[in-house]
């Protein structure tokens, strides 16, 4: 069954490791991520952007699919189904649809409006037994239509949002959605340390997990990051494996064109990426 992300992230914060949030785009993505989480006995967060929710025909479809897959696959590790970068309306729809966690991304709003809407959604999420993530500052780059300028989070604003009762908080610390540019200066650990100082035991979230060097990941975890989001890296791995399959002409051999064969290399590539991240984040055997 689905669980909220609160307990697994509080444990991660206390245990100095991070739980992976892996975005799903369809059944194959979900199957690969769940299988590896179970294999490594790791808690896992399945992230669903609003665009992916629409692509999968709606949040009710996603919730029903994930719940059924957990049962059919015999998944016993903690799994949270989490709306990623949710709008106010999207959050309300996911509460209705049976998600176990939501993110309200109010980082593009004036802080007062971010506070006002976050406060309302915290109450609603908790009344429905769900966890809720908020964001301060913004994540650079573009993710599924979400474009951020990459402003650093203001630690005082983080405290104001934390005091509303959110369960975990995403703070902009120079992280970027998508591939990092060659001249990327790295994560700003001074800002992260100040945010943690202001927010105490609240689990912090690192968006834009694709391509961040392992030493930075480990340092971010020591400074309070307990949830790390990864999407692009799985997408690139899937695309690369699928391209290789087709370039090798495998789709022309026998029933190689069967979608269950055509999608298999990509699904395996997602597994490899998720496995590597779970090992790096330290959540293996922490279910
Ligand atoms: O919200 C999703 C994540 O922040 C994904 O970031 O695509 O750069 O790995 P990424
Ligand atoms: Zn993100």
UniProtKB/TrEMBL annotation:
<feature type="active site" description="Proton donor">
    <location>
        <position position="84"/>
    </location>
</feature>
<dbReference type="InterPro" id="IPR000771">
    <property type="entry name" value="FBA_II"/>
</dbReference>
<feature type="binding site">
    <location>
        <position position="177"/>
    </location>
    <ligand>
        <name>Zn(2+) 1</name>
    </ligand>
</feature>
<feature type="binding site">
    <location>
        <begin position="229"/>
        <end position="232"/>
    </location>
    <ligand>
        <name>dihydroxyacetone phosphate</name>
    </ligand>
</feature>
<dbReference type="Pfam" id="PF01116">
    <property type="entry name" value="F_bP_aldolase"/>
</dbReference>
<feature type="binding site">
    <location>
        <position position="135"/>
    </location>
    <ligand>
        <name>Zn(2+) 2</name>
    </ligand>
</feature>
<dbReference type="GO" id="GO:0030388">
    <property type="term" value="P:fructose 1,6-bisphosphate metabolic process"/>
</dbReference>
<dbReference type="GO" id="GO:0006096">
    <property type="term" value="P:glycolytic process"/>
</dbReference>
<protein>
    <submittedName>
        <fullName>Class II fructose-1,6-bisphosphate aldolase</fullName>
        <ecNumber>4.1.2.13</ecNumber>
    </submittedName>
</protein>
<keyword id="KW-0862">Zinc</keyword>
<feature type="binding site">
    <location>
        <position position="85"/>
    </location>
    <ligand>
        <name>Zn(2+) 1</name>
    </ligand>
</feature>
<dbReference type="InterPro" id="IPR050246">
    <property type="entry name" value="Class_II_FBP_aldolase"/>
</dbReference>
<keyword id="KW-0479">Metal-binding</keyword>
<keyword id="KW-0456">Lyase</keyword>
<feature type="binding site">
    <location>
        <position position="207"/>
    </location>
    <ligand>
        <name>Zn(2+) 1</name>
    </ligand>
</feature>
<dbReference type="InterPro" id="IPR011289">
    <property type="entry name" value="Fruc_bis_ald_class-2"/>
</dbReference>
<feature type="binding site">
    <location>
        <position position="105"/>
    </location>
    <ligand>
        <name>Zn(2+) 2</name>
    </ligand>
</feature>
<dbReference type="GO" id="GO:0004332">
    <property type="term" value="F:fructose-bisphosphate aldolase activity"/>
</dbReference>
<feature type="binding site">
    <location>
        <position position="178"/>
    </location>
    <ligand>
        <name>dihydroxyacetone phosphate</name>
    </ligand>
</feature>
<dbReference type="GO" id="GO:0008270">
    <property type="term" value="F:zinc ion binding"/>
</dbReference>
<dbReference type="InterPro" id="IPR013785">
    <property type="entry name" value="Aldolase_TIM"/>
</dbReference>
<feature type="binding site">
    <location>
        <begin position="208"/>
        <end position="210"/>
    </location>
    <ligand>
        <name>dihydroxyacetone phosphate</name>
    </ligand>
</feature>
